[in-house]
Design goal:
heterodimer, A: 367 residues, B: 125 residues, alpha+beta, 6-stranded antiparallel β-sheet, 3-stranded antiparallel β-sheet, 4 helices, 9 strands, globular
């Protein structure tokens, strides 16, 4: 099992640990509910060093990123981050990712830990076809970079104490390179996977211990806590963010998953699978990924069946949990046409009983 | 880890407190810690007579679903009414307020297979 730069800290702090994507990662510390509420109300720290980072550089960088990702890279300015996905050439999704534009000839792609090898193989193949030099113009630095996500409404205020760069006023989904906690060239990004604001901070593995210590010291007066992967999942689901492997995969299209907003069918963006997805957008496609909130007591789980009032199967749950904020079951499911409108009554099959739920729009915790 | 001396245990991490021909069943502190925050306990077997090893209910934590098994055969007499509104009592007080069901024991000879506190302690390391 691989360690991140922070694995020993998690163990020392008494986290419940488990293997995740080959890394020894913290699942929970004080309890998923307490951690979840800490992030919604104050701030919490996630070790997300298992994520993958690919650099794309040089004169062909833009062309490669434009081709392999569905969003329009031309919309980016230097210092801007974009949510996107890699179409897989068959109308499915290789992975979802963040695209960072450093400048016209330098991009950083941040991908899911579970898919690093698959993503790299896919990008390498496309890069070779376009004539990029592997290892130089496209480079996998996943094993060299560690990352902390500091998330919550007080996160930026607390992190401002560690740098002279202005971070409290940064717009959502932007980044800057700055001196931070005495570390040079830190990538400070106002991104995250919780829906509560905050930042993600990238440093080299050697600087990890220094970053960890500084972040916790700066956050102490605000009530900062370490957060595990359990709460990371409940937070993202409550905010309606897709999880690759659950809600999107090699068989689902971005259009089906409600990610039409990251597919840009504009001149100059001839990405892989554009034709397939453009057709789906014009002609419509079923089933589609929708959120829902339980009306009756019960917790939806992945792979539970969804039925209509007459018991006919109309879909399947892809993610489900108890929302610590609503204290109700919430989830996402692929639903057949006719059951997409907010407020539509659906039934989740939980242990052979049909439990009522209503189709709802995320974020769920703000309803 | 708290493993009270006055109870019997199962390998499924349940405890049973025997009182004549009735018994109270719950999950151990170890189980409640492994589960994490308990958010839902569903028991709908009141009045049913179940065999040893049959499922009498389900306990759900934020991330997991686990079945609850009968440590011995018996009739489910009573369900802890506090579980519906406050399932977190399973974490807070697994051997007290967080009990699951009260049963009438069908066959006292089945009690012999239950684990002593000493043996249970060994199974959880």
């Amino acid at each position: 099992m691989k360690k991140t730069a922070f694995t020993d800290y998690h163990i020392d702090l008494g986290a419940k640990m488990a293997e995740f994507c080959g890394f020894n990662m913290p699942i929970e510390y004080s309890g998923i509910k307490d951690e979840h509420i800490t992030v919604r109300e104050k701030l919490g720290v996630f070790d997300v060093s298992h994520m993958g980072e690919f650099w794309v550089k040089g004169s062909k960088a833009f062309d490669l990123v434009q081709k392999v990702t569905s969003n329009n890279v031309a919309d980016l300015h230097d210092g801007k981050v974009q949510y996107s996905c890699f179409p897989n050439g068959k109308g499915g999704i290789v992975d979802d990712l963040l695209v960072y534009k450093v400048n016209d000839e330098t991009y950083l792609l941040v991908v899911n830990a579970a898919n690093i090898d698959k993503d790299w193989a896919w990008c390498e193949k496309q890069a070779k076809e376009m004539g990029l030099e592997i290892g130089k113009e496209i480079y996998n630095s996943s094993n060299e970079i560690c990352q902390l996500a500091v998330q919550g409404p007080l996160a930026l205020k607390a992190m401002q104490k560690l740098t002279t760069a202005n971070v409290v006023d940064m717009e959502y989904y932007t980044f800057q390179k700055c001196d931070f906690a005495g570390i040079k060239d830190v990538i400070f990004s106002t991104t995250g996977y919780t829906g509560s604001g905050g930042c993600e901070i990238y440093v080299s593995n050697e600087d990890g211990p220094k970053l960890w210590k500084a972040v916790f010291e700066a956050g102490e007066e605000f009530g900062i806590k370490p957060i595990g992967l359990g709460a990371r999942d409940t937070l993202r689901l409550e905010s309606g963010f897709c999880l690759y492997g659950n809600d999107i995969n090699d068989e689902t299209s971005a259009i089906q998953a409600g990610l039409g907003w990251i597919t840009k069918f504009v001149d100059g963006n001839d990405f892989v699978d554009r034709a397939i997805w453009e057709k789906q957008k014009e002609e419509g496609i079923s089933p589609r990924l929708k959120g829902f909130i339980m009306e009756e007591r019960g917790i939806p789980r992945q792979h539970y069946k969804v039925v209509d009032a007459d018991g006919n199967e109309i879909g399947e749950v892809t993610s489900g949990t108890m929302s610590p904020i609503l204290n109700k079951g919430i989830g996402m499911a692929y639903l057949n046409k006719g059951f997409w409108k907010v407020g539509t009554e659906i039934f989740i099959q939980i242990r052979n009983k049909n439990i009522k739920a209503l189709v709802a729009k995320a974020p769920f915790h703000e309803q | 880890m708290n493993v009270p001396e006055n109870l019997k245990y199962t390998e499924d991490h349940e405890w049973i407190k025997i009182d004549g021909d009735t018994a109270i069943i719950g999950v151990t502190e170890y189980a409640s810690q492994q589960l994490g925050d308990v958010v839902f306990v569903e028991i709908e077997t009141e009045g049913e007579t179940l065999a040893k090893g049959e499922t009498f209910g389900t306990i759900e934590a934020v991330k997991t679903v686990s079945d609850l098994f009968m440590p011995v055969g018996g009739e489910v007499l009573e369900i802890n009414p506090k579980l519906e509104e406050t399932p977190e009592i399973v974490n807070q007080d697994p051997y007290g307020d967080g009990w699951m069901v009260k049963i009438k024991i069908s066959d006292a000879s089945e009690l012999e297979a239950l684990l002593s506190p000493e043996v249970y302690k060994e199974t959880i390391g």
